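A reminder before we start the practical. When you read a complex entry, don't treat the lines as separate problems. The point of joint prediction is that each chain is placed relative to the others, so the output describes one connected object in space. Small molecules and nucleic acid strands, if listed, are placed in the same frame. In the example below there are two entries. Take a minute to note the order of the lines before looking further.
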Amino acid sequence: MSAHQAVDRSLSSISVGEVCVREHMITAEMIQTFAELSGDHNPLHVDETYSAKTNFGKPVAHGMLLGALVSELVGMHLPGVRCLLIKESLEFKLPVFAGDAIRVEGKVMHKSEVTRLLEIAITITRGSEVVATGTVHTKVLERHG
Amino acid sequence: MKTFEHIVEEMLHIPPQEGMDALTPKDIPDWDSMNYLLFIAELEKEYGVSFTMDEVLSAQSLGDVRKALQAKGKAV
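Here is the predicted structure of the whole assembly.
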């Protein structure tokens, strides 16, 4: 399977309590690319000089860059190809910077057979620090083709 | 444990009120297809039950959803 091929998980193959973990290195290029993609060029994220004068001391990764990595988790891995993201909420607890190695964990908290919805608890950590938490609801679509 | 009314308020954004069981999708702006599924899934999680497709599709009002829960032995 290539790095860009989503896994294909059926609803019945997914269990409450199942955990999926993805690890990422946040880079300056990712922050810049996210700024271009989203149009959010806030200097706190992209201006070294500006951010150096703030309490953070250096550019802070966009919170929704972490949200995008949650999208990667559900869209590519749990449940993967059949994912239809319905709802995502995140609470950002600590700033994340270029050079940070982060771990995005999704844990299935509830599975509804009739609605085909999964509720997945999200915990994003940097070492022992929790940098963000949240919840995702995703539908697991019927198999296509 | 969240009450039925609390879940309605949280998921469909309708405050507890007299006669709420009579409310239908026409009365509740946020009762769209996706929010309804989220509402049903939240009820299943909170009350530890599973609805059938027939129960989900046949509910015409909040009262119908409440009755479906009561039919599963839940005091709501």
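Discuss with your neighbour: The interface with chain B takes residues 86-87, 109-110, 112-115, 117, 119, 137, 139 of chain A (CB under 8 Å). What might explain this?
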